[in-house]
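Thread: Modeling a multi-component assembly for a lab meeting

Hi all, long-time lurker, first post. My supervisor asked me to bring a structural picture of a complex we are working on to next week's group meeting, and I have zero experience with this. I have the sequence lines for every component (334 residues in total). Could someone generate the structure of the whole assembly? Inputs are pasted exactly as I received them:
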Amino acid sequence: MSAARRVALGAWEFVVGDDWRAAIGVAVALGLTALVATTDVAAWWIMPLAVLAILALSLRRAIREVSRRG
Amino acid sequence: MSGADLGLALSVFFACTVEAVEALTIVLAVGSTRSWRSAISGVGAALLVLAAIVVALGPAITSLPIDLLRLLVGGLLLIFGLQWLRKAILRSAGVKAKHDELASYQQERDAALAAGRARPGFDGYSFSVAFKGVLLEGLEVAFIVLTFGANQHRVPLAAAAAGLAVLVVVAAGFAAAAPLARVPENALKFGVGVMLSSFGIFWGAEGAGAHWPGGDAALLAIIPGLALVSIAMSRAVRRAVALASDEPAPASGEAAAEPASAGV
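Re: Modeling a multi-component assembly
Sure thing. I ran the full set together rather than chain by chain. Output:
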């Protein structure tokens, strides 16, 4: 593995950690907020709701993984 | 000092406390078994590297346009904060093993003894283990100092809070002459996760163009709101794990108080 690849993997692991879906969820929620903010509709409520959903789903995945392992 | 500054200082202080406790365990183990002088040199070198990272990247990050800075910092803080929060909840529910400072200390001591006798004078093993330990634990703090501090243009305040936490932990560690096993690491991680995620929600939404009702005062609703929901999630995870393993769930009062006592 090249040094650049190791650094990139290390940075990914450092910032994103073991649940990449949560990071994708945050990016999608921010994108949706930006989209709604360009309209007349209030956009502030999207992030709090999205974060609760992301956290709940992330925890559910972790529990399922533990249950699968027995 | 504004409320946001206080939030910044407290978040950095507690995040740094957690990481400094873990780094102290490594330094104490290697210093007491091999060479104090070399271990402390490793600590000094790692702190210099961390300071250089903050000094080099701080001005570059603060020079970004404010909306882009808030969007980037908000997103990164949120991703990072959710990691801390998720792990703290899973640890408190017993899904992930809690960090055990005494076990880590013994493990580091065994490894240091197995590496052979320390050379007189400079001991490369002590230096490199202490250097790596402090650098790796400190990178998370440097990341928080840079993102959190840059967004409020208060990197010096964030760095001062981190420095104060290091001093407090080092003083406590040397006074106790042992790993700080009684520091409630998981409860601190839970609190830091809530703070980072809350500020991430706030800045991320602002950076994306949203306007919060009440402006900065919205944080006064976001922080306790997220904390309460996270405590409720912690209880739900505990119950789900107990059901999955056919064990009785803990009493509701015990579960509600759990994040505050987790890791003690």
